[in-house]
Amino acid sequence: MTSFAYHLHPVGPLLGGLLIYSLAQAREVLQRYRTLASTAPDALGTLAALATLPDGTPAVVLLIAYNGPITDGERLLQPLRTFGPPLADQVGPTSYIALQSISEHFNPPGLRNYNRSDYLQGLSDDAIATMVEHFATVPTPQTHIVLEHLGGAVGRVDPDATAVAYRDAPYNMLTVGIWDDPAADMAHIRWARDLWERMQPFSAGGAYINYMGDEGEDRVRAAYSPAKYARLVDVKTTYDPTNMFRLNQNIKPRGAPGATP
Questions:
Q1: CB-based contacts of 90, cutoff 8 Å, min separation 6
Q2: What is the pTM of this model?
Q3: Do 114 and 76 share a domain, yes or no?
Q4: CA 34/CA 62 separation, integer angstroms
Q5: How many Cβ atoms sit within 10 Å of the Cβ of residue 238?
Q6: E strand or H helix at 33, and its extent?
């Protein structure tokens, strides 16, 4: 039997919500976002997205969550909120649950989807330009590109303490392709893959394993360091020598067909 214990902590009210700017402002918005994220305290969690609004307007969207005194958060976000001005400023006191529900509007259930992801070495001007230029050709209004800012407590864990790699990567990029017509599968998959390929010069070398699809064993290996992968093979061989649990980003036990010698 496996069990774990955890503690719940009261959270809120938060200062959170969306800042929305036109796509024409995307490069400068993302540069300002980069500046804010580079010195952000642990209390500030953010992501940026290139997305299409419900009215069809292409936009750059910042999702903000500040878990601290509201007045402190207001001061911290002031340079972003006064720039532009934004198309919409929906940031204000909110609950944790309300904040979590925002992403549901960008990821409607029941549609076809294909994702590609990589950790990024940074958010250079060239990386920003590549994403903005590619998004200008987005094939459906549901498809979007997400930048997750990392750092903070994630980056302060001993690199050898867990299987998770790339703790020093400042960003994760996730391309979320969403569409409804099965006949358009290859076109939408190609669009997401093309962006992933164009972003490889900025990649830290691998992806977050839970964001990966069926991308092959080499990509699974790249999600971990060689030493971490070897340790995981040891665990797999000990506890699942027949590879029963394999409908995942599979790490094969030693002795399985195609496994690491």
A1: 17, 18, 19, 20
A2: 0.91
A3: yes
A4: 11
A5: 10
A6: helix 26-38
Shared domain check, 33 and 112? yes
- Runs of H (alpha helix) within 106-184: 125-135
Q: What is the pLDDT of residues 46-90, one digit of tens each?
A: 999 999 999 999 999 999 999 999 999 999 999 998 888 899 999
Cα Rg for the chain, rounded, in angstroms? 20
pLDDT average, residue stretch 162-181: 94
The residue to which tokens 């989807």 are assigned: 113
Within a domain: residue 88? yes
Q: 209: which 2 tokens?
A: 């394993």
Cα–Cα distance for residue pair 123/171, rounded to 1 Å? 7
CA 226 from chain centre, in angstroms, equals 23
Same domain membership, residue 203 and residue 139: yes
Check the CA dihedral 168-169-171-173 and report its sign. Answer: negative
Determine the Cα–Cα distance for residues 109 and 152; give it in Å rounded to an integer. Answer: 31
